[in-house]
Each structure stands twice: as structure tokens, then as C-alpha cells.
Write a structure and sequence with these properties.
With 750 residues, the chain is an alpha+beta fold. The chain is 48% helix and 14% strand. The protein folds into 6 domains: 120 residues, Orthogonal Bundle (Arc Repressor Mutant, subunit A); 99 residues, no CATH class; 210 residues; 84 residues, no CATH class; 58 residues, no CATH class; 81 residues, no CATH class. It is built from 35 helices and 24 strands.
């Protein structure tokens, strides 16, 4: 019996095992494997393999496929011969695959996880071999193909013709050369045909070139492609060429660093501005979830955001970072927001940057089947995979040069050329907004994001570059306040109460007016308290015009007092006469009850609003005559549980499993039941879901609803009831039942 992955892991020294676990961080998430057998099981699981394959470049992917095609003959020299490649390039790719735990040595032969080997063979070596296809083919058709291939088969019987073709095609180089000589359009057609070979018959090709070249067998109305042709067609474009020689980033390093800091601080300001707004006025939610276009347009206009795409990105990152959630009134900051807001810049930016790097979609591309999925609802997309692979490849290179070679750095994407171009433009813009990319260069902040992608401390990594600027407030004689830097919550609340923003940016301008100061007094401020707070904002004295404004508004504030009757107005006699004669107030139906008392059938809120519109400064009192302070209630969404991404270090896990030894994975009772209900899930997925049920731990599932739509959500299961799983859904913040058979994937919590 050959060497399996678990045996290979047992043979690794500690440093090699630690490095492998560092490169496969998903293995370190709860429930962490208890022994080497479970580590191997997790490494060979479909989800873990998919994540690892996303780290492969084109050359390494093709070498991996070659290992799958050669099977028991997959030795390094044979790989180089099959791919017609420089052995040094093959060794480089084998080292990458080995470092990720995707190949391991079994003597001289390289082995792959069975699931990955089957997948790669299905991609490049599908269909029946010529020896098997020949059994059902007319002998004349076999002779036609053999003659087209330059073989002399005159007088040979059917079995001999089939053997001649088999012998001629045993060396893929023969077919590869013939395919390379085809016209470009014919090669494209052959590639399309080979890409959809499933063993089922195809319709006859209308391109006579392929028939004349003997690359397609025809039987009546159907055409067939032999496996040898499929492999040769793949090999014609699979030769490793080495890492592309790309130009260095042309931008000045100092300009890149300063530009990144400016962008990062601006993004933090935008996020804080939007979430502060949502705290007092929750963002209206659509019935199906998400913030609709109309509400986003209001947000863009009110907060001076650049465009709708910026608003979408703010909402997506805030929600994914656990700072924005849904309440009965709409989307509002979570309970975690206050602590995040008061933390320093590296911690705040790192939380948003990590959310962006892990995001599986681009916020600017939310159209699915012709309809928008409103933010911050999650999407399934390959955009996140392309983002991570591209930025991970940039280093010191030109970002745009790397984008031009995206098919080499991200060979596994399934997007058309125009879709890739659109996606890259979105990724580039988002990266610039966060300060990850500046111009054509990866910034120091971007390098830190890539370097710490496997569970490092991003906040610590950027602490030396990203520092909160000192907040300065300058009160000016034109009744404005110029605010630079990051104001703390107390300063923000004071300015929200007493002034209105006029412009936003790295420095914001707030304007004081009679209406804004009246609002502050409606919210409980008096003249002396407000002036004292304003003096505390700056070392400079409060400008005289601003002090006069505050005292004048304070003098007039409360000149009319409104009590519930429906409404009772208590005021001076002369002012009562004025109100009774004011045409714009006739709709209130004011009636004199006494020289200084008026009544109205309108509600107090309507009376207050009408009086303010008419230029008066009323206050509201309760039934006893006590002043009622008017302040918008801050609404908070409950903080959804955010599972830790990496709960153990690679060193800790390596020590644990080395001490435990190989072990023997066994199904639990729950696991056995789940395997019956969902036989399409692999053992790793069953193990994850069973652990989540038994321990009531969060887990990520991809679920297919009754409509056929797929959603990805974090759930905490706590009961298996017949064919259904009862769980708390963190996406909907409610209890839900899930049909186990409809669970398509099970992943560690994200």
C-alpha cells in the first residue's frame, strides 16, 4: 500500500508541518482536528482543496493537472516530458503544490488527494480512449481517421486499425503538434468541443478541418472526440512559461505611502459618518432585505458620498465587519460599533480591510439574473477569489501589468474577457478607496493585508504607518466650525446638536444658525452649558458672533410653551395676538382660552413644527409644565456572533496533532444520521455539521431554497428533527429550519 497524506504528515518535521498549516488556515478553525488523521481528512475535504487551488498560478495548476493525468507514472521527469517544459519550472510548481499539501511523495511518484485528482482528470482527460471508442465505430471511419493521421492501414482489420491509432496516439506530442498547426479558429472550436466532453455523443462538427485532420470520429449524425485528443488539446496550451516578467511599479514610494494614509483615513471617516447617521435614523430596509436604491440615493445626497457604489461598499464592509445590523426600524449600528468607533485608526481600518479582503463579491456588481441584490445582503461570486489572487501576486510589480496577466495569476476563474475587465476595474477602485492600492502600486497598507492574510495581526502590522491625526476644531467668526482629524464621540454629538454640516472631506465645515442652536436647546442644552462646551473644543475663544447667536436664541427659546390638550400654548399676550393673526398658522385652529393661553386641536408635534416653520422658538412641555428634552433616540442592532477566523496558531495545532499521533476518525451518532440525510456531503462537511450540532457551535452553510436560489449563511444548529435541522440563522437573526438534503456545502464559520 502506498503512502497516503496522513502518512506523509506523520513523516514531516515540526517546522514543515507548521508551515503547511500556516498556508492552509481553514484547517485551524473550530472544530480544530484532534490528530493527524483528522488533519489529513480536513486537508482533503472539498472546501479546503478549493481554497488551496485558489492560490495556484497557471504553471502550477497545469503541473497539478499533469500529475492527475499521469497517475502512477507521475514522476518529475515524466511531468516535464508530458508538458514539454523546463524541469526547473516543473520543480518550482511541485514545490508550491507540496507546500500547500496538494501533492506528496510516494517513493518517486507524486500523489494527489483523490477528490482533486478526479476533478483535474475530469477537466483535461475526459471522454473515452480511442481503443474503447473504436469498438462502436465503423471500420471505414477508423481507416479515415488513421489515414488523416498519416498511418498506412491498408488491408488491416478493424482491431488492427484501432491498435495502430492507439500506438500512434500513445505519445501526446504527435497529436499536440498536429493541433498546434491548426488555424486559430479551428483550434478555438476544438477547445470548445473538448471543454464540454462528458462521454455523451456530440452533434457533428460543421468544421471540415477537424474531420479532415482526423481529430473527430463521426458515426452517422454524431461526432466523438477521443480522450487522447482531449489531453493533447489541453497540452497544446499547457506548457509552463515561468512567472511573467512584469515591470516594477512606477509610482514614487513616498507618494504611495501618503496617498494610502489619506485614503484610509477618508474611508474611516466615510464609514463613521454613515454609521453615525444610521444610529439616529436607521436605514430603511427592503422587505426582502438590504438597503434599496432610493434610500441609498438619500444617503449619498445627505452625506456627500461620491456615488452609489461607494455607499454600497460602506454598507457591505460595515455589515461584514459586524458593525451594521438589521433592527425592526431598519439597518443600524450594532452594539460593537461604539467600541470600534473609539478604538485607534489601525484597529478600525484593519477590521474593515480584513472584511474587504475576505468578501466573496464586489459591491459594485450586485446584479443577479437581471435584478439587484441590495447591500448588505451577501452574494456568491468568484470576485473575491480573483481579488485575493491578484493582490497576492502584485508585490513590487505594476498593478495594471498584473491585471493584464490575470489569467496567469488566476487561471481557475470562469469569466469571459469582458467580465474579467469589468471585475478588475471594480477591484482596483475598491482597493484605491481603502488605501490598499495607490495609482499603479500596492501600498504599504496593501502589503500588510496580503502578508497577514492567513490570520496575522493586521492592526499591529499597520500601526507604524496608520496613525490617527490630531483632532482640531476652529470656531470662526462667520458662524462656522472647521474640523480636521477624527473627532471623538463627544465632539461629534456636540456638533450634531448645535450645527449642520456644510461640506465633508479630510476637513469638515459645520455651520451654526438660529435653527441649529435652537435644536441644541431642544435637546437639553442651555446657553452657558453650550458655550462652555464650545470653549472646550478649541484653545481659541468663542467668536463674538457665535456667542451673541447662542445667547439670543437662548433668550427667545421657550417664548412659546406647548402642552398636550391636544395642544395648549402658553405665551405672552402680545405674542398670542401675533399668532392668532398669522395666516400660515390658521391650519392649527388656534383658539384663545386666556390672554396668555391658546389651544389647538392639532397634535403637539404638528404645532411645534408649524411654529418653527413660522420662525418662532417654541419648546415642548409635559402635562405638569416640565420641559421635554427632544433628542433622537440612538438605535442599535444586536451584535451577531462573529466566529474567530483562526482560533489556534499553526505552531499550537502542529504540537497538538504530533502528540496525538495518527488517530482514527470515527463517525458520531449525529454524523451517521447526517450522512444518511445528505449523502452528497463529504466526510469533512459531515464532521463539521455534526460537531456544530453536538456542541451548538456556529458553522457556515450554502443552502438551496425551494425557489432554487442559493444563500450562504452562518447558523448555529441545536436540534435535528427528522429531516430538518433547527438552527439560529445569523443572517436573518431568527430561528430557522433547514432541510438537511438542501444543504449544499458546509464550511467553517467565517
Amino acid at each position: 500500500m502506498g503512502t497516503g497524506l496522513v502518512d506523509h504528515l506523520a513523516d514531516l518535521d515540526r517546522s514543515a508541518l507548521v508551515e503547511l498549516l500556516r498556508r492552509r488556515p481553514d484547517v485551524r478553525r473550530e472544530p480544530v482536528p484532534r490528530d493527524l488523521a483528522r488533519v489529513a481528512q480536513r486537508l482533503e475535504g472539498g472546501h479546503s482543496l478549493a481554497l488551496a487551488v485558489q492560490r495556484l498560478d497557471r504553471d502550477t495548476l497545469e503541473v497539478g493537472r499533469a500529475v492527475a493525468v499521469l497517475g502512477d507514472d507521475a514522476v518529475p521527469d515524466a511531468l516535464a516530458a508530458l508538458l514539454d517544459a523546463d524541469p526547473a519550472l516543473v520543480r518550482r510548481s511541485v514545490d508550491v503544490l507540496s507546500g500547500l499539501g496538494l501533492v506528496w511523495p510516494d517513493g518517486a511518484v507524486l500523489r494527489l488527494p483523490a477528490q482533486l485528482a478526479a476533478h483535474w482528470r475530469d477537466e483535461v482527460a475526459r471522454g473515452e480512449p480511442i481503443a474503447r471508442l473504436a469498438r462502436s465505430m465503423p471500420v471505414d471511419e477508423l481507416r479515415r481517421v488513421a489515414t488523416a493521421q498519416g498511418l498506412d492501414v491498408a488491408g488491416l482489420r478493424k482491431a488492427e486499425v484501432a491498435q495502430a491509432l492507439h500506438d500512434a496516439w500513445h505519445d501526446p506530442a504527435v497529436l499536440r503538434q498536429r493541433i498546434a498547426a491548426l488555424p486559430a479558429t479551428t483550434r478555438a472550436l476544438l477547445a470548445e468541443i473538448c471543454g464540454r466532453v462528458t462521454g455523451a455523443p456530440h452533434g457533428p462538427s460543421d468544421d471540415r478541418v477537424l474531420l479532415d485532420a482526423g481529430l473527430i470520429l463521426q458515426d452517422g449524425r454524431f461526432g466523438y472526440v477521443a480522450r487522447e485528443v482531449v489531453v493533447a488539446e489541453w497540452l497544446a496550451g499547457a506548457r509552463p512559461r515561468g512567472v511573467p516578467d512584469l515591470p516594477q511599479a512606477p509610482d514614487d514610494a513616498g507618494r504611495v505611502a501618503s496617498g494610502a494614509l489619506a485614503a484610509a483615513h477618508e474611508w474611516l471617516r466615510l464609514t463613521t459618518t454613515v454609521l453615525d447617521e444610521a444610529a439616529t435614523t436607521p436605514l430603511a430596509a427592503l422587505k426582502g432585505g438590504g438597503v434599496g436604491k432610493r434610500e441609498r440615493a438619500r444617503l449619498v445626497k445627505r452625506l456627500d458620498l461620491a456615488d452609489d457604489a461607494t455607499a454600497c461598499l460602506v454598507l457591505d464592509l460595515a455589515a461584514d465587519a459586524g458593525l451594521l445590523g438589521r433592527t425592526a426600524a431598519g439597518y443600524a449600528p450594532t452594539e460593537e460599533y461604539a467600541a470600534w468607533r473609539e478604538s485607534d485608526a489601525p484597529q478600525r481600518w484593519a477590521r474593515l480591510a480584513e472584511a474587504w479582503f475576505a468578501l466573496e463579491f464586489c459591491s459594485g456588481d450586485r446584479i443577479v439574473d437581471g435584478k439587484e441584490v441590495a447591500p448588505p445582503e451577501p452574494l456568491l461570486s468568484t470576485a473575491g477569489q480573483v481579488r485575493r489572487a491578484l493582490l497576492g501576486a502584485v508585490g513590487d510589480r505594476s498593478v495594471r501589468a498584473c491585471e493584464a496577466e490575470v489569467d496567469w495569476f488566476c487561471p481557475w476563474h470562469d469569466l469571459a474577457a469582458d467580465e474579467v475587465a469589468h471585475l478588475l476595474a471594480l477591484v482596483h477602485r475598491e482597493a484605491e478607496l481603502l488605501g490598499v492600492v495607490v495609482g499603479d502600486s500596492l501600498s504599504p497598507l496593501g502589503r500588510a493585508v496580503v502578508a497577514e492574510r492567513d490570520g496575522g495581526d493586521l492592526a499591529a502590522a499597520v500601526a507604524g504607518d496608520l496613525v490617527d491625526p490630531t483632532c482640531e476644531v476652529v470656531l470662526q467668526s462667520d458662524l462656522t466650525a472647521l474640523v480636521s482629524g477624527r473627532p471623538d464621540l463627544a465632539v461629534t454629538r456636540l456638533l450634531e446638536d448645535a450645527a449642520r454640516p456644510e461640506s465633508r472631506g479630510s476637513a469638515t465645515v459645520h455651520r451654526f444658525s438660529p435653527a441649529s442652536v435652537r435644536t441644541a436647546m431642544d435637546r437639553g442644552w442651555d446657553a452657558e452649558g453650550l458655550l462652555a462646551a464650545l470653549r472646550g473644543l478649541s484653545e481659541r475663544p468663542v467668536p463674538q458672533p457665535l456667542e451673541y447667536l447662542v445667547r439670543d436664541v437662548a433668550r427667545r427659546h421657550g417664548e412659546v410653551r406647548v402642552r398636550p390638550v391636544s395642544s395648549c400654548l402658553v405665551l405672552e399676550e402680545t405674542l398670542a395676538e401675533e399668532l392668532l393673526r398669522t395666516r400660515s398658522l390658521r391650519s392649527l385652529g388656534l383658539v384663545r382660552l386666556a390672554p396668555t393661553v391658546l389651544s389647538s386641536p392639532a397634535a403637539p408635534a404638528a404645532v411645534l413644527e408649524a411654529l418653527r416653520q413660522a420662525g418662532h422658538f417654541p419648546v415642548r412641555e409635559d402635562e405638569s409644565g416640565a420641559l421635554t428634552v427632544e433628542r433622537d433616540e440612538t438605535r442599535l442592532a444586536s451584535s451577531a456572533e462573529r466566529p474567530a477566523r483562526d482560533l489556534v496558531t499553526p505552531e499550537d495545532l502542529a504540537d497538538r496533532v504530533r502528540e496525538a499521533g495518527i488517530g482514527h476518525p470515527e463517525d458520531t451518532v449525529t454524523g451517521a444520521r447526517l450522512a444518511e440525510l445528505a449523502p452528497h456531503l463529504d466526510p469533512v462537511e459531515i464532521d463539521l455539521l455534526a460537531d456544530a450540532l453536538d456542541e451548538e457551535r456556529p458553522v457556515t452553510i450554502v443552502y438551496r431554497g425551494q425557489s432554487g436560489a442559493y444563500t450562504k449563511r452562518v447558523v448555529t444548529p441545536y436540534e435535528l428533527h427528522h429531516r430538518r435541522m433547527v438552527a439560529w440563522c445569523h443572517l436573518r437573526d431568527d430561528e430557522r429550519e433547514f432541510t438537511v438534503a438542501r444543504i449544499q456545502e458546509v464550511l467553517p464559520p467565517e
